[in-house]
Amino acid sequence: MSSRRRNCVEQFVVLLQRSAELFLKDIKKVAITMALPIVIAVIIIAVEDYDKVKTYEDTRALLFTIVSAAIYIGMFNSLTLICKERSIIKREYLTGMKLSSYVMANVVVQAFISLIQALVMTIMLYGLGETFLEGKGLESHPAFMFYMISMFLIVFTADMMGMFISSVVKTAEMANLIAPVIIIVQLIMSGVLFKLDGVMEKVASLTVSKWGMHSVGAIRDLSTLKMKITTTDDWKSINDDIADVNKAMNKDIDLNSLAAIPDSENKDYAATMGNLIDSWGALLLIIAICIILCIIFLRNTKKDQR
């Protein structure tokens, strides 16, 4: 191993230890970080009746709530992580600290935090709502494991996005001002609230929310669920009326097609390993991009006038 590489590894070990100690010393931060997934999971469980969440719209809405909560949790972890240390980073960078070692040390600590948060949230949501969260389309595989991996990747990807923002801005106040905008963009680009086409659909491919929804939607196999309109008491009567119209007018109107899940969503939320792996791969790619950009933008600390 070259001396330069050995130096990077040694710096990484020292910085990893320091990052972990700094996090653990902040008792208030530790308490909030660990309590956040518990509180959010309790609220979701309290307001939702899992036995009544059976239609496509209701199930997708609940999954969207879970994904949105996971994104918020992840961003909260690291949003001010770097910007509050910019003066220290500048001093140590100018005296030989490798930015890659510093960033990767924080990445490892944040990955561990995200893993614990995802595990807690998944256990609570899956354990108390197993009927709802069962992976019907992937019955030969443990659905809990898939949910756990997806939840971890969603939280961790949002965490890395927060760390990237923290490397760009210079103050915690600015980071906190930007955060709501980023979260709103995530919600809009998820494809749940609005139908996205053209350029916006391509932009959405860079968001955590889209791939997070695709992953949990595939595990739950949203594509097999019925639309809400088909579960109403009037649906059979409407079908009978349409059948009479078809007979009288010699037409072939299929009312079920009017309540079908859109083809694009049907494909995206189908319970296949291909969909799941694609979603995980996209989230991992976003993580890698955020880490690289974080290192690049931190080089600007040399220009800081403080």
Structure in words:
This protein has 306 residues and is mainly alpha-helical. The protein has 2 domains: 3-225 and 265-303, no CATH class; 229-260, no CATH class. It is built from 14 helices and no strands. Helix 3 (56-78) runs antiparallel to helix 5.
Write the layout of secondary structure elements.
Blueprint lengths: L2 H23 L1 H21 L8 H23 L7 H9 L4 H30 L1 H4 L9 H26 L3 H17 L9 H7 L3 H13 L14 H15 L5 H4 L4 H6 L4 H26 L8
Helix pairs in contact: 1-5, 2-3, 2-5, 3-5, 3-7, 3-8, 3-10, 5-7, 5-14, 7-10, 7-14, 10-14
Short description:
This protein has 306 residues and is mainly alpha-helical.
Shape: globular
* Helix percent band: over 70%
Main pleated-sheet profile? none
Taking pLDDT < 50 over at least 5 consecutive residues as the criterion, the unreliable ranges are none
CA radius of gyration: 23 Å
Q: State which percent range the strand residues make up.
A: under 5%
Give the number of domains: 2
Structural class: mainly alpha
In total, the number of strands is 0
Topology order in helix (H) and strand (E) letters: HHHHHHHHHHHHHH
Distance linking N and C termini: 37 Å
What's the overall average pLDDT, rounded? 80
Count of alpha/pi helices: 14
